[in-house]
Design goal:
Order of helices and strands: EEHHEEEEEEHEEHEHEEEEHEHEEHHEHE
CATH class of the largest domain: Alpha Beta
Strand order of the largest sheet: 2-3-1-11-12-13-17-18
Low-confidence stretches: none
Strand content: 15-25%
Structural class: alpha/beta
Shape: flat
């Protein structure tokens, strides 16, 4: 029902409801994580929303055993997702990427479903694994006819691990349709129309070299980051990649470009990368910016893909970064990670006091051992106003809230009444930030000169006083 008066023709009372004063600021996401990495299964070059590690395994499959060398070839996405969810993340936008130079467009395991027609073996249709990657090699496809002599029906059986699927039919078309209706493992493709009524008698795997597209390059990581640009992401992680600039591992430059571009588009976010070395003097800091966190050192983790007496592996700092990103995602924006526990079994390097001091001098987010493993100081690589992660997040939260609160006023009247309503909306939002201890205070004004009114501009001027965390406690003891 319209709340605006249309044309007044018949005598009576007409009411126009002006609801600007009821506009408020809705919920604002603060812990959505975006991640890109390599995997053995799942869609390539698509954003997938995950809510748990079990969903990650179902979508992208388990990771491989951590190699003793050539660790750039290790699958990174599921391994990093494990650490993200261990850290506390609950909403993750994941993108599987693959090496464009070595990853064929048609990198799918296939089977020919055939029958003998006039002494010639003819392919009736094909089965293709749901998504590209080596995971399809673990699927087996067998076809049995019933009865064995002069059969009138057949059963196609698919197996992968403990999963089993069966599809029965009297014709190729019947089996083809049954597979596409309910199979979670394969798609049936290229049905031969002239032979669709023929009874299939065999299923044969097509010989092919299947890869997972590793190692992914920095350019591949950038392509994945581009897919996250328009997603409601607050924190970004590049699985298995570090802060350096090498072709195989470093993506510092690409992540910085992504963070700058999304900030210019009004989709502010923070990037979390692992340091490219555990040695303080060798760590590369791509830039001094309040939108990047560089984490050190690497971590010791349990490898679910390993068998034998020892399943612990030393992972590089890029996986510690995923754990820290998960911890950050589960923490309110005004709460600093300084001195917060980090749920890792162990670290690959235990720093001395001198080394920790050196890391702080380079603005590295360091993990120390102190009643367990804890973050030394919750800092970005910035050397100025946005050095504390919490300050950066508070300001981003304020920007998002002002954007959400102000957008409904676009297109409304630019007069004193509507500007007063806009101010009331923003004032309510900022007051809430003070109550939540994100801000210690603020000033707000919404104005427009006559020329600004003509140009359609309502000027919002704010001064925010973010809440800072306690990094040091200085104690003075006077003895008498």
């Amino acid at each position: 029902m319209s709340e605006t008066i249309g044309e007044m023709i018949l005598p009576g009372t007409y009411i126009d409801v002006r609801a600007e004063g009821l506009i408020g600021v809705g919920g604002i996401s603060t812990g959505n994580v975006g991640i890109v990495g390599t995997a053995k299964r799942g869609p390539v070059g698509q954003v997938v929303l995950l809510g748990s590690y079990s969903e990650a395994l179902d979508t992208f499959g388990p990771y491989d055993a951590w190699p003793s060398s050539n660790t750039q070839n290790a699958l990174s996405l599921t391994r990093a997702l494990e650490q993200l969810f261990n850290g506390g993340a609950s909403s993750v936008y994941a993108v599987r990427v693959a090496n464009g130079a070595t990853y064929a467009a048609d990198n799918v395991v296939k089977w020919n479903v055939t029958a003998v027609i006039a002494t010639v073996t003819t392919t009736l249709f094909q089965l293709a694994a749901k998504t590209p990657g080596t995971w399809g090699n673990d699927i087996t496809a067998t076809l049995t006819t019933d009865p064995p002599v002069t059969p009138t029906s057949c059963t196609l059986t698919l197996k992968m691990g403990t999963r089993k699927e069966e599809f029965a039919g009297a014709t190729a078309e019947a089996v083809f349709n049954a597979v596409n209706e309910s199979s979670a493992l394969v798609n049936a493709i290229t049905l031969s129309d002239p032979n669709k009524n023929v009874l299939p008698t065999a299923a044969t795997k097509v010989a092919a070299t299947i890869t997972d597209g590793v190692p992914a390059s920095a350019a591949d990581a950038k392509a994945g980051l581009d897919l996250l640009a328009n997603q409601p992401v607050n924190i970004v992680v590049v699985a298995g990649k570090d802060s350096g600039t090498s072709t195989n591992f470093g993506v510092g430059a690409q992540l910085l470009q992504h963070l700058e571009a999304t900030e210019n588009d009004g989709r502010e976010r923070i990037g979390v990368l692992g340091a490219d070395s555990d040695t303080p003097a060798s760590i590369t800091i791509p830039a001094t910016t309040g939108r990047l966190i560089v984490v050190a050192p690497g971590m010791v983790a349990d490898d679910a893909a390993r068998t034998g007496a020892s399943t612990s592996v030393n992972l590089p700092a890029s996986y510690t970064a995923a754990l820290v990103a998960g911890r950050l995602a589960s923490t309110p924006v005004q709460v600093s990670l300084t001195n917060k526990d980090v749920p890792a079994p162990n670290v690959t390097t235990e720093y001395t006091r001198a080394q920790l001091k050196s890391l702080l001098g380079k603005n590295v987010f360091a993990i120390k051992r102190d009643l367990g493993l804890r973050a030394l100081k919750g800092i970005t690589t910035d050397t100025g106003a946005f050095k504390q992660i919490s300050v950066r997040r508070i300001v981003d939260y304020a920007k998002a809230g002002v954007r959400v609160g102000a957008n409904p006023y676009i297109g409304r009247l630019n007069n004193a009444r509507v500007r007063a309503a806009l101010k009331a909306t923003l004032d309510g939002f900022l007051s809430g930030m003070v109550l939540d201890e994100m801000l210690t205070g603020y000033t707000l004004d919404v104005t427009a000169t006559r020329q600004q009114e003509i140009n359609g501009i309502a000027l919002v001027t704010m001064t925010l006083q973010p809440t800072f965390s306690i990094d040091f406690v200085k104690v003075i003891m006077n003895l008498e």
